[in-house]
Amino acid sequence: MNTTKTPARLAAVFAVSLLALTGCAAESAPATDESIAFGDVVTIEDAWVKAADEGMSASFGTLVNSGDADVTVVSVSSDASSMLELHETVENEAGEMVMREIDGGFVIPAGEDLVLEPGGNHIMLMDLTEPLRAGDEATFTLTFSDDSSYEFTAPVKDYSGANENYEEGDEHEDMDH
Ligand SMILES: [Cu+2]
């Protein structure tokens, strides 16, 4: 009895450990792009929105990627503005700092931060739906390249610096920062 039981038990143990091994491998390989939604590993710290009566404004903060894959923010929406864009600030041929829609979205490197700040990358509110006054709050939804999303609420603050020129050269030319 014992002599027939032992090999059978060994075989069973062997089969289980094989399953465990393959299960493990199957889980860890695609984990970075399938199992974990980008919206679950990205947060924003110190988010705020610039107060404005009408027209354009911008939102800032530090995007934190706690995951082990680079994350790309492809779009953003908010009730505060009928249209929003992801902007970068670059120097044009004339040596002026101008802002424009960033090509390919915001990339937050794996395990790192991406700072959105006046004079740099920012979330652009192109056309406010109502005045944003200091003390108000605005809610934003970021959408990532895997179609997951992350919602955050940011307080509105008065801020007078960093009124960058808009690259398309419209009526919003203004002071240097
Ligand atoms: Cu902008």
Describe the overall structure.
This protein is of the alpha+beta class and 177 residues long. The chain folds into 2 domains: 27 residues; 123 residues, Sandwich (Immunoglobulin-like). The chain is built from 1 helix and 11 strands, in the order αβββββββββββ. Strands 1, 2, 3, 4, 5, 6, 7, 8, 9, 10 and 11 form an 11-stranded mixed sheet that branches. A hairpin with a 4-residue loop joins β9 and β10. The longest helix is centred in the N-terminal third of the chain and has 27 residues. The relative contact order is 0.21. The C terminus is likely disordered. The site of copper (II) ion (CU) has 5 residues, from β8.
What's a concise summary of this model?
The protein is of the alpha+beta class.
Describe how the helices and strands are arranged:
Layout: H1 2-28, E1 42-50, E2 57-65, E3 71-78, E4 84-91, E5 97-101, E6 106-108, E7 113-116, E8 122-125, E9 137-144, E10 149-157, E11 165-166
Parallel strand pairs: 1-10, 5-11
Antiparallel strand pairs: 1-2, 2-7, 2-8, 3-6, 3-9, 4-5, 4-8, 9-10
Bound molecules: copper (II) ion.
Residues 58, 87, 99, 122, 124 line the site of copper (II) ion.
Descriptive labels:
binds copper (II) ion, alpha+beta, Immunoglobulin-like, disordered C terminus, 2 domains
